[in-house]
């Protein structure tokens, strides 16, 4: 039997901070490139591009952290120690409705 990660292993705080930092870094670099920071510009435009990129990176970092924290609140604390061995959004095998074909077959003769 293979080792499956637990939900606690999937929700490590350092990894979540790393994801938020990576997103902020990406947003800051995209802002710098779009504002022409790496091109020759007038004096002061480079400084303004740095300030705007820092603000965008900071806002992105905070928004990603808040969104991830809200998504983690959706996890049931009783399920934190359970292993994840299948896709989470798929329904359980026990929830399938086996009576559906029988109900459809018996309903065909009622309309006549």
Overview of the molecule:
The chain has 112 residues and is mostly helical. It has a domain at 13-74. The protein is 56% helix and 0% strand. It contains 4 helices and no strands. The radius of gyration is 25 Å and the shape is elongated. The model has no long low-confidence stretch (mean pLDDT 79).
Structural class: mainly alpha
> What would you call the quaternary organization?
single chain
Number of strands: 0
- How many helical elements? 4
One letter per element, helices H and strands E, the order comes to HHHH
Largest sheet: none
Please give the alpha-carbon distance between the first and last residues: 55 Å
Protein name: Amino acid transporter
Biased composition (Acidic residues): 91-101
Keywords: Membrane, Transmembrane, Transmembrane helix
Transmembrane segments: 16-38, 50-75
Sequence-ordered SSE layout with sheet pairings:
Blueprint: H1 7-10, H2 13-34, H3 45-73, H4 100-107
Helix pairs in contact: 2-3
Kindly list the characteristics that best describe this protein.
112 residues; mainly alpha; 4 helices; membrane
Quick synopsis:
Residues 86-112 are annotated as: Disordered. With 112 residues, the chain is mostly helical. It has helices spanning 7-10, 13-34, 45-73, 100-107.
